[in-house]
Amino acid sequence: MPLELWKATVLGIVEGLTEFLPVSSTGHLTIAEKLLHMDISGPGPTAFTAIIQVGAIIAAIIYFWRDIWRIILGFVFGLFSARARQEPDGRLALFVIIGTIPIAVVGLALKHVIENDLRSLWVVAFGLIGGAP
Predict the structure, then answer these.
(1) Quick check: 127 and 24 in contact, CB under 8 A?
(2) What pLDDT, in 10s, does the model give residues 65-79?
């Protein structure tokens, strides 16, 4: 069943309001989907969530473009120069890469669990409560 336009609009607003706040936009989207009586277990809601989050990611890339470019240059220069690897931007690039590897491995290994079991409203609620400052 196709997603109704008003529901897509509500989810877009929830995403837009929560993406740049120190809260889980994905968790809040899951709660909103349940409040809208949507079946969150299927691939449709997961795909929709991913697609609307792309917009927020693009906005963040545009906003932080200069910083991102500086870090990319720090990484590239660090490939050829030990001195550049010691600069803050080169070190940050390296730390981002190293920090991404474990989450990528875990994410790929637990893909099925993440896409299905962890989308439970109980898991989301406990995650939001447990992760609150």
Answers:
(1) yes
(2) 999 999 999 999 999
Q: SS3 for 29-54, per residue?
A: HHHHHHHCCCCCCCHHHHHHHHHHHH
Nearest to 87 by CA among 79, 78, 98, 96: 78
Contact status, residue 98 vs residue 92, Cβ threshold 8 Å: no
Whose tokens are 């837009």? That residue is: 16
- For residue 26, what are the contacts with CB-CB under 8 A and spacing of at least 6? 49, 53
Q: Are 25 and 53 in contact (CB under 8 A)?
A: yes
pLDDT confidence bin for 86, thresholds 50/70/90: very high
Task: Kindly report whether the global pTM for this prediction surpasses the value 0.70.
Answer: no
